[in-house]
Amino acid sequence: MQRPNPTAERAGFAWPIRVYYEDTDAGGVVYHASYLRFLERARTEWLRSCGFDQDVLRREAGVIFAVRSAKLEFLRPARLDEALCVELRIAARRGASLLFDQTVQRSGQLLCRAEVLVVCLDSESLRPRPIPMPLAAAIAPD
Amino acid sequence: MQRPNPTAERAGFAWPIRVYYEDTDAGGVVYHASYLRFLERARTEWLRSCGFDQDVLRREAGVIFAVRSAKLEFLRPARLDEALCVELRIAARRGASLLFDQTVQRSGQLLCRAEVLVVCLDSESLRPRPIPMPLAAAIAPD
Amino acid sequence: MQRPNPTAERAGFAWPIRVYYEDTDAGGVVYHASYLRFLERARTEWLRSCGFDQDVLRREAGVIFAVRSAKLEFLRPARLDEALCVELRIAARRGASLLFDQTVQRSGQLLCRAEVLVVCLDSESLRPRPIPMPLAAAIAPD
Amino acid sequence: MQRPNPTAERAGFAWPIRVYYEDTDAGGVVYHASYLRFLERARTEWLRSCGFDQDVLRREAGVIFAVRSAKLEFLRPARLDEALCVELRIAARRGASLLFDQTVQRSGQLLCRAEVLVVCLDSESLRPRPIPMPLAAAIAPD
Questions:
Q1: CA distance A14 to A42
Q2: Are A120 and A52 in contact (CB under 8 A)?
Q3: Which of B70, C17, C41, D39 is the most exposed place for a label (fewest CB within 10 A)?
Q4: What is the maximal distance between C-alpha atoms in chain B?
Q5: What angle do CA C105, C107, C108 make, to 5 degrees?
Q6: Rounded to an integer, what distance in angstroms lies between the CA atom of residue B14 and that of residue D51?
Q7: DSSP element (H, E) containing B58
């Protein structure tokens, strides 16, 4: 398991999500797999806020990020039309992986808590590769 | 088929969409069914911009909106990380239905064109019901 | 628009679909975009029944099939746990495209009717390409 | 955490899954959230094989099953057109919850391992409720 690396920690990042019909199920609430989509949108937008698009990383650096593991706790249901907020912080960074602590909240109330381990892979071989330097530096600049 | 009702026409409404992995498929482009989700997000946000949440309409007015038919043309592919724009205008309004002309564009280039007929239904019986008055008035105020 | 080509017509093909939570929405019924997924599963399995996997076609013949247009009519709702049946027949075949007539039924009752135009594309350039010969022959053997 | 209850253990259950375009992403592999859908299909079909439909349970017993937590490990990618197999066994059973051990395999090769805690909820209040008796008995008949 990853050990927290204090130098990799950064202030949190928050991304708003609106719940549409596409996200819900016949139970009247947000379908549980939709949270994985919400969590990834926030990671993608965090990466973009650091200056990196996943598509550019793939084309220019030849790397993609893949979810290696995820622990999800579903604490309260979300419903149609609600405005949610996905937050993330980096809990640990290694040479070829990032561990994210993420939450989904509604008006400050915790709905879902997640720990997501993302690995950096060569886009052709799908084997682990070090996070490319400019990005690694942007994540933990010291 | 619906006949255009000039009094129901309004200036267009535009809603931004970002393409995430969840929206794409192994062909490397946006999966064709994802466009139906994008189109619905824009209709939902247009309704919200008129002052109406679908969830409130269901709980308070007892109506839901359902897609009765859709004609879709997929003209050019969209790709991961692209910023798209969904536009809509009301092509026709009847007592219990709305016909939307919608497009999905990228930097002004047309990717998808759609004609979507939405009907107003009783949320319990799922039978057609007139669009509730305050909403009907908001859509075509004269 | 495609003109029906009698020689391309074949007996119908049917594929069973079970409705899971993932397919439904908070309206308590199958989400409208889910039908596009159901329709594609049937086309894929029909192609497989003709002896062709899409993944093999892409790797060996360098072609992919893309939906160029779709007309969908949603006539009755489907619900969680229901057993549906997707049927298809080829309404027209041209050099680089196939027009499918498809239905989704439940116990013989029509829920959704669709006309889907699929084009054969070069997997690299995404430009139209003739349907490769062994497949074209399998679709219309005379 | 749940402790294994030997009397609740049963022989495994297996459910086949075919990978379609809808399940994949632009990385060329199955999208990680799709595994949650595959895992749920297997749980639903296992329940059906025990004689219980979720929709009937909701209408007649007033209960629904909700995912309370999930631990997922993504070990190897799956690709378009592949035939997968989802297996499950019950790792623990309590009054109002079931802990599932699940795997997704391809030709005996492990792709994804999951531990999914499902709770039984009142379908109206969404509060925990004991698993209804006939079902509880069917799961652990002694």
A1: 7
A2: no
A3: C41
A4: 49
A5: 60
A6: 49
A7: none
Q: Go through chain C and tell me how many residues it has.
A: 142
> Is the pLDDT reported for residue D3 higher than 70?
no
As a whole number of Å, the end-to-end CA separation of chain C is 24
**Cβ atoms within 10 A of the Cβ of A75, count?**
13
Average pLDDT for chain C: 90
Nearest Cα of chain C lies from the Cα of B66 at a distance, in angstroms, of: 8
Query: Which residues are within 8 A (CB) of D24 and not within 5 positions of it... i.e. 6 or more apart?
Result: B25, B26, D30, D31, D34, D79, D80
Q: How many CA atoms lie within 13 A of B6 on its CB side?
A: 0
The interface pTM score, or ipTM, of the predicted complex is 0.89
A40 and B22 within 8 Å at the Cβ level: the answer is: yes
Nearest residue on chain D to B22, alpha-carbon basis = D25
Tokens coding B124: 């319990």
Structure tokens at A97: 């992986």
Instruction: Please tell me which residue in A25, A53, A81, A122 is annotated as part of the active site.
Output: A25
Mutate: best of D55, D67, D121, D123, partner C, most C CBs <10 A: D55
**What is the pTM assigned to this prediction?**
0.92
**pLDDT score at A140:** 67
User: What one-letter code names the amino acid at D121?
Assistant: L
CB–CB contact D25 B21 (8 Å) = yes
Catalytic residue, from B25, B53, B81, B122: name it: B25
Between the two ends of chain B, the Cα-to-Cα distance in Å is 24
d(CA C21, CA B58): 21
Token pair, residue D37, equals 């859908």
Test mutation, B24, B36, B80, B118, chain A, max A CBs within 10 A: B80
> Which residue is associated with the tokens 């008995």?
D137
Q: Do D53 and C81 touch (CB under 8 A)?
A: yes
Strand partners, A14: A87
A-chain residue closest to C25, CA distance: A25
Hey, are the CB atoms on B26 and D22 less than 8 Å from each other? no
Contact D107, D85 (CB under 8 A): no
Residue D66: closest CA among D1, D117, D131 = D117
Question: Does A33 contact D32 at a Cβ distance shorter than 8 Å?
Answer: no
Check residue C134 and give its pLDDT: 87
The set of chains that have 3 or more CB pairs under 8 A with D is A, B, C
Q: For chain D, report the end-to-end CA distance as a whole number of angstroms.
A: 24
C25 is catalytic: yes
Calpha distance D109→D84 (Å, rounded): 10
Amino acid at D12: G
Using a CB-CB cut-off of 8 Å, the residues of chain A touching B37 are 20, 22
Digits of tens for pLDDT over chain A (142 positions)?
Answer: 333 333 334 458 999 999 999 999 999 999 999 999 999 999 999 999 999 998 889 889 999 999 999 999 999 999 999 999 999 999 999 999 999 999 999 999 999 999 999 999 999 898 999 999 888 888 864 4
> Cβ contacts (< 8 Å) between B45 and chain A: which residues?
18
Which residues of C lie inside 8 Å of D (Cβ-Cβ)?
18, 20-22, 37, 40-41, 44-45, 53-56, 79-81
